[in-house]
Amino acid sequence: MSSYATKFSRDARRATRDRRLRETISTALHNYEIARDERQTAFQDWQTARQAAAETKWEALNLLPQHLASFADKLAVRGTKVHWASTAKQACEIIVGIVQIRGARSIVKSKTMTAEEIHLNEALEKVGYEVVETDLGEFIVQLRHEAPFHIVFPSMHLKRGEIKELFQSALGDAPSDNPEELTMVARRALRKKYLAVDVGITGANFAIAETGMVSITENEGNARLTAALPKTMITLLGIEKILPRMSDLALFLPMLATSGAGQPMTGYNTLYGGPRQFGECDGPEEFHVVLLDNRRTELLADPQQRDALHCIRCGACLNVCPIFRNVGGHTYNTTYSGPIGSVITPHFRGLQEWKHLSAASTLCGACSEVCPVKIDLHHHLLHNRRNAAKKKPSGREQFFYDLWTSLVNHPFVWWLGKKTGWLFQPLHKIVRGSPLDPVRAWTKTRDLPPIPRQSFKDWWRKRR
Amino acid sequence: MTVTLFIPCFVDALFPRAGISMVQILERLGHQVVCPKTLACCGQPAFNSGYWDEARPIASRTLETLKDAEAVVIGSGSCGAMVKKFYPELFDGTKHAKLAGEVAARTWEFSDFLVNKLEVTDLNARFPARVTFHDGCHGLRELGIKTAPRTLLAGVRDLVLVEMAEAETCCGFGGTFATKFPMISTAMAEVKCASAIETGADYIVSNDSSCLMQIQGLVSRQGGKIKTLHLAEVLAQQ
Questions:
Q1: Residue B142 DSSP one-character state
Q2: Least buried of A100, A104, A219, B202, by fewest C-beta within 10 Å?
Q3: ipTM computed for the complex
Q4: CB neighbours of A196 closer than 8 A, spacing ≥ 6?
């Protein structure tokens, strides 16, 4: 078992015992579900919309090289500097390089999971820069020195009382636990930072190939400020964010808002096409776009699981996943948690080290059912299991399944097995739930059904 | 019609009443039921753990047994999904590929068979109790079975069906998952049981005994009063 797998089991044990955490998640997501269902009715037909979105993403990925070239060329024509990064390390080096050339002192960032993926904050802090997260949820988890709990709701695991205490100790300012007042505290702290800052870093939700524009969706206006106030704007995005046409946004923007947060549309949806143009009165003087591969092309080369690159990072699969709802985001110990994280992390960071995430699923399929771009998530978990077992089978499991085959494939042995179970049942009661119990993993928390004297096959044989 | 009834291994060993009820119901409807001796397991435990090479010897034996069956009825949504949906994938590119497709097309989950193949909705059953129905995930999402069990329950006299909020939420069984990640599995069962108990039902009914084993396992440990029962056992009550 990899050390990540051991940690996952340990953290899952802790999280599932934390009833307060589980209730916090459940309440938040219950409210989300009600809003999401209501918003879905605004679509003429949600299932048709999903199909259309999946086909658009399929088209985008199928012609990815052409779309990326068009996206980059159109951006460059308007004076944007486009960078290509094969790895996380390269992307960090590119961004650190830009910041150093500009002689920047401090940096503001709006929410970007791609930056979490490449550990950009650590890279910038290592060379002495202060990086300030401006999304409220991200700002909160940054003050707590924590990773985001959820890809859309980074601080959903916290009660407002905890946020009040945090602001009091970290900022010395928290009049009450009223959400509006707490937001104002963060706003005051962040506004000061904005005015002193030289570089703004954003992520992107979509990259429009047709027009060479970056589409950013947010609810707080912080991404707009991050893009507008500093002299230099840097946008980091994965190459899979491509959409072929501007008109595709007509579907994808409401879909992302509905699936992601149960909103009809997100508060602010902005398109960025380049730095400040001649005659324009605002916008950054310099605009850099960093396109990240980081093993996405390897996933693209996998015909069975390529559709995992359809993901628009809405978080809908996390929200319905009974595993996520009971263990929470931090237990995954990955940038992308929940079903999509369990599917792609083994691809991005190593199948054998991360295969436990694919095993930690009942394959219930709730994720695939809600995914707006129809990623076959739970079947990909199954395929990850198959690929992991094929490349590096566990001797113990192989032995067990071979034994099982000889048991069930021979009617007499199967009959004998049932009888043995029935005979030893009274003995099992003595060790039940104790460390001597061979099925303790079950009996520690649950009872086993009694093995009846007469099995179905016994009954069937007798009645003939 | 001659119905080949596939009683999955754990139903055979642990829940014979569910299998017996299915035989009784099908025979009452005038069909001839056969239960071949060599049918035991569908191979799902190995398949779901990723050990496809180990799953094939079991699955191919099952396939060959079902080769000439007119209709195959499986007493579990999960094992039904294995044969109907996953056999074609498991045998893709092997000599059994064609047979897997043919058998899959002739295979039905029990409630689906009654309602959608035989077009029976009233079995003249009587069961005076409040009942809540748990949708097993494989039956629900792999096979799309949602209304058939409810249609059948609606035909049962004196039965009151009360839906629980988490009817479609997984019970946390998931085969080997239940013992690989017992803490998560138990937490999921807690959510399920709390939702079922909230309805004030006397029984949690499902078309999958594996889910019921998980749910009953936790209810018994917690000392709860609510009981679990397979759909076929309810429908066989006269």
A1: I
A2: A100
A3: 0.97
A4: A105, A106
Q: How far apart are CA B133 and CA B217, in angstroms?
A: 17
Q: Which CATH class is domain A47-294?
A: alpha beta
Q: Search chain A and give the residue with CA nearest B45.
A: A401
Give per-10-residue mean pLDDT for chain A (464 aa). 94 97 96 97 97 98 98 98 98 97 92 97 95 96 97 96 95 90 94 91 98 97 94 97 98 98 97 95 94 98 97 98 98 98 97 98 98 98 97 94 93 95 92 90 96 97 88
Contacts A404 to B, Cβ<8 Å: 41, 45-46, 58
Q: How far is CA B160 from CA B1, B132, B154, B199, B226, in A?
A: 32, 8, 8, 11, 15
Cβ-based contacts of B221 with chain A (< 8 Å): 445-447
Which residue from A346, A336, A347, A345 is spatially nearest to A312, judged by alpha carbons? A336
Q: Do B179 and A441 touch (CB under 8 A)?
A: yes
Instruction: Report the amino acid identity of residue A440.
Output: R
Q: Closest to A360 (Cβ–Cβ): which among B41, B184, B217?
A: B184
**A322 contacts in chain B (CB < 8 Å):** 169-170, 172, 188, 191
Give the closest of B11, B54, B216 to A402, CB-based.
B54
How long is chain A? 464
Smallest Cβ–Cβ distance between A389 and the set B35, B50, B187 belongs to B50
| Sequence spans of domains, chain A | 1-41+316-392, 47-294, 407-463
Ramachandran sector of residue A115 (left: φ over 0; alpha: ψ -120 to 50; beta: rest): alpha
Q: Do B170 and A366 touch (CB under 8 A)?
A: yes
Q: What span, in angstroms and rounded, lies between the C-alpha atoms of A10 and B183? A: 10
- Which chain A residue shows the shortest CA-CA distance from B211? A362
User: Mind telling me how many Å the CA of A461 is from chain B's nearest CA?
Assistant: 9
* Pairs of CB atoms within 8 A across A/B: 181
A306 class by beta-carbon count within 10 Å (0-12 exposed, 13-18 middle, 19+ buried): middle
Q: Do the chains contact at B48 and A448, CB–CB below 8 Å? A: no
Tokens of A242: 């491509």
